[in-house]
Design goal:
The protein is α+β, with helices and mostly antiparallel strands. The protein has two domains: 19-202, Lipoprotein localisation LolA/LolB/LppX (outer membrane lipoprotein receptor (LolB), chain A, Clam); 228-260 and 287-317, no CATH class. It is 16% helix and 43% strand. The chain has three helices and 19 strands. The strands form two sheets. It has a twelve-stranded mixed beta sheet, covered by helices on one side. A seven-stranded antiparallel beta sheet has the order 12-13-14-19-18-17-16, with helices on one face. A hairpin with a 2-residue loop joins strand 12 and strand 13 (241-250). Helix 1 (2-33) runs antiparallel to helix 2. The chain is globular, with a radius of gyration of 22 Å.
């Protein structure tokens, strides 16, 4: 008799757990689905080996298709903005008066750690997701889809008892946290004007960045694929600065270009291929054959026909101010 009671109780508990997950997800979907606008601010950390890159993040959304994400590096106060409006998708660097226009479906084509509807999509579309209620938190464990970084495989999404997003953690296949986002402030159905999403309004800055006209320190990758080596190095002048071309030969050949950036006297918009994604301490453009990004007054271009996207990103992430310089 005790055996049968135990089995019955187990079925009841399992059933309640499933219903609870359904109810929680239903309530979260109902809450997020009713937002005409929202504003989220918080802190994003990215972990790259022994280095941590920290950002203050501000997200604004307005139905149906307007997004503005501001990321400010907490070390150097450098700001970049990802903007989606009716025209296109842009990555802006206000201090350089530059914008890059992408032919992209961002943010809909990938998981996004700080965008509510994309997190909800990850939960809703994962048939193998798990759920737990712990410390008054609703916690979902789901797979992720980061085509620009395939090392990221899963996430934990934390909601409070009122179904407000509180935290997100992104893991690799070794269960190591690679990114985390903590919400500091959330406003729902707040007043956000359309002007917030106009390109020119986000580049109107009186304080432009001072940049060098020379590549003072050549930065070399800390990681090289097997049987790959530096075969040549050239430094050339250009009209408004300097360019260094590093050519790596061997089985996994690639080219790394480092050049000084310029500050636009007026708004400059450049058409860029690929997808916007975080590269080391900045937002870059990632394709199957290249990674392009700007950091500390230098523009980097990494190109290869012999490296896949994962290898390209591994090389790119090994290029930082802590890398070997000569």
């Amino acid at each position: 008799m005790k055996k049968y009671l135990f089995i019955l109780l187990s079925f009841l508990l399992i059933g309640c757990g499933k219903n609870n997950q359904k109810d929680v997800l239903k309530n979260i979907k109902k809450k997020i689905g009713n937002f005409d606008t929202y504003a989220v601010s918080g802190e994003l950390n990215m972990y790259n080996g022994d280095s941590t890159y920290a950002y203050n993040v501000d997200v604004k959304f307005k139905k149906k298709d307007f997004y503005r994400v501001s990321l400010v590096n907490k070390v150097n106060n450098h700001e970049q903005i990802i903007l989606r409006n009716t025209d296109s998708v842009y990555v802006l660097t206000p201090s350089l008066n530059k914008s890059f226009k992408f032919q992209s479906d961002w943010p809909y084509n990938n998981s996004q750690i700080y965008i509510l509807d994309r997190l909800l999509n990850d939960i809703d579309s994962d048939d193998e997701k798990t759920y737990e209620n712990k410390d008054n938190m609703h916690i979902f464990n789901t797979k992720v889809n980061y085509s620009t970084n395939t090392e990221l495989v899963k996430q934990k999404i934390y909601f409070d008892k009122n179904y407000n997003l509180k935290k997100v953690e992104i893991y690799n296949d070794k269960d190591e946290v690679q990114m985390d986002f903590t919400v500091n402030k959330f406003e729902e159905n707040c007043q956000i004007k359309d002007e917030v999403f106009v390109l020119e309004n986000n580049l109107d800055t009186k304080e432009t960045e001072e940049v060098s006209k020379t590549v003072e320190d050549i930065i070399y990758p800390m990681y090289l694929p097997s049987n790959t080596y530096l075969s040549s190095q050239d430094r050339v002048s250009k009209d408004d600065g300097e360019r260094v071309i590093l050519t790596f030969g061997g089985d996994k050949s690639f080219t790394l270009i480092e050049e000084t950036v310029t500050v636009g006297k007026q708004l400059e918009t450049n058409l860029t291929y690929g997808e916007p994604g975080l590269v080391i301490d900045t937002i870059g453009a990632i394709t199957d054959y290249s990674v392009n990004w700007m950091s500390n007054g230098i523009e980097y271009s990494l190109l290869s026909d012999n490296l896949d996207k994962s290898e390209l990103l591994t090389v790119a992430k090994s290029i930082s101010s802590s890398s070997i310089t000569k």
